[in-house]
Amino acid sequence: MSTLNDKPHPYVGMWVTKDGFIRHELLPNGRYDEARRKRKSAYQGRYTIVDDHIEYVDDTGFTADGDFRDSVLYHAGMVLHREK
Questions:
Q1: Residues 60-78: b if buried by 16+ CB within 10 A, e if exposed
Q2: Fold category of 13-82 in CATH
Q3: 84/81 Cα distance (integer angstroms)
Q4: What are the boundaries of each domain within the chain?
Q5: Burial 40-54 (b: 16+ CB within 10 A, else e)
Q6: Residue 50, Cα to own-chain centre: how many angstroms?
Q7: Distance from the CA of 5 to the CA of which of 16, 20, 28, 36 falls in 20 to 30 A?
């Protein structure tokens, strides 16, 4: 998930719901790791980003998507903010 100059995509990093229940870590290699509550790696898979749209495919084949708007990730009814 690198650009031509090998800098990570600007959306790479940790995205978290306000209550901290869901945590999406978008890794620079196009993989993601989703934690739920204290369960790390509840879901893992790959993602692709085109413009401000993200497509997820977890390792079981389940698919989902989301959109980045105004520094917020909207995904499957969840609102995630970049962790600082």
A1: eeeeeebebeeeebbbeee
A2: Lipocalin (2.40.128)
A3: 9
A4: 13-82
A5: eeebebebebeeeeb
A6: 13
A7: 16
